[in-house]
Amino acid sequence: MSEKIKLFGFNNLTKTLSFNIYDVCYAKTEREKSEYVSYIDEQYNAERLTKILCDVTEMIGAHVLNISKQDYDPQGASVTLLIAEEPVPAERMDPTCNHGMETLEKRRSICGHLDKSHLTVHTYPEYHPNQDISTFRVDIDVSTCGKISPLNALNYLISSFDSDIITIDYRVRGFTREMGGRKCFIDHKISSIQDFIDEKTLEAYDVQDVNVYQANIFHTKMLIKELHLQNYLFRNDVMEFTPRERLDITNRLRREMIEIYSGKNIYE
Q1: Active-site residue 54, yes or no?
Q2: Do the domain assignments include residue 2?
Q3: Strands (DSSP E) found in the chain
Q4: What is the mean pLDDT of the chain?
Q5: Residue 24, pLDDT score
Q6: CATH, residue 37
Q7: Of 9, 72, 201, 219, which residue is the least packed, with the fewest Cβ within 10 Å?
């Protein structure tokens, strides 16, 4: 719908983007598996995830009210930001909000809030108990109210992680009203989440859509096309393996990706 349409009161449409990625890796020994999980835990700790969410907040034109974050033992991290569509004057700021000003030097856990919306991220490093495959999952949710849209940060999120499998859900809920009282159930044009992803990125993935247009629900799944084995070996060089071993490792990595992408156990 045109942005020139005048609305009666506040635009209270809720737009939610759920962004989920998997990174798959080959780690042969128990030590390598443990080191992989530790490596991922350090690379995507709460501090770095906080910066990513703050960057997203800026990209969508919102303002941080409060941040909370936590690194977990033995692994994983979570960050929550509360955001506002417009800057909130200091005198109106809830005293429990840190306005994103309290850094890690002052406290280990941070939580961020928005007056109309929120951003959250959770990480899940893990490895297969019976095979040499390890995975790292990131779940990010960006929920906004008003005119701002989380879709504007989609390319930045994809580029922020090594993404072998990507699952994206976008939905618009509620309604707002035009001046004459007519309900407005969506305030922007969208036919597919793919419309908001860079073309070069799309070329690197097999992409599938499942959309329910009448309900303003959009779903996109992406699976990396090319698998360059060296990029998936942790603490190993591809030349350390025989051609037969390389083929076997490549097949195991691809099978893991296909099952995650399909959401079912195929190669049991």
Answers
A1: no
A2: no
A3: 14-26, 63-71, 77-84, 117-127, 133-145, 165-173, 176-177, 183-184, 205-209, 217-224
A4: 82
A5: 93
A6: 3.60.90.10
A7: 9
